[in-house]
Amino acid sequence: MDRIPLHVGGKCGSHWIHRLLTGHPQLCKEQLRVEKHIFINLMNTLMEKNLLSDGRFVFVAEQVGICLYILAKADSYRDAADRFQHLISTICKYNRRVLQALVQLS
After folding, report:
1. Does 7 reside within a domain?
2. Mean local confidence (pLDDT), 19-33
3. Does residue 2 belong to any structural domain of this protein?
4. What's the pLDDT at 4?
5. Is 69 exposed, middle or buried (0-12, 13-18, 19+ CB in 10 A)?
6. pLDDT digits (tens, 9 = 90+) for 78-106
7. Residue 8 lies in a domain
8. In whole angstroms, what is the distance from residue 9 CA to residue 99 CA?
9. Would you say residue 21 lies in a domain?
10. DSSP for 11-72, written as a single string
């Protein structure tokens, strides 16, 4: 029996985040409810304070994007898993990690 990947189609999450940060200036705000410069500042602050670091396959930009996407869209982990092309467990892990970092930052 052939193995079919769980997530098929669509761009991976890192490509989608890259498009948000390099595309139309309003795209990031439309999708994540924050302006591009705020997203970048948040990401840099979380890294500078050692609250977040790159994972083996998921970099900080995508981790923050996952969390903001779930908050902005009020989407489920399943929807985020489809958007970012990761397993639900991966989405849950990084969403929790970013939320904990935000609490520590506050």
Report:
1. no
2. 94
3. no
4. 46
5. buried
6. 999 999 999 999 999 999 999 999 999 99
7. no
8. 28
9. yes
10. --HHHHHHHHHHS-TTHHHHHHSS-HHHHHHHHHHHHHTTS----SS--HHHHHHHHHHHHH
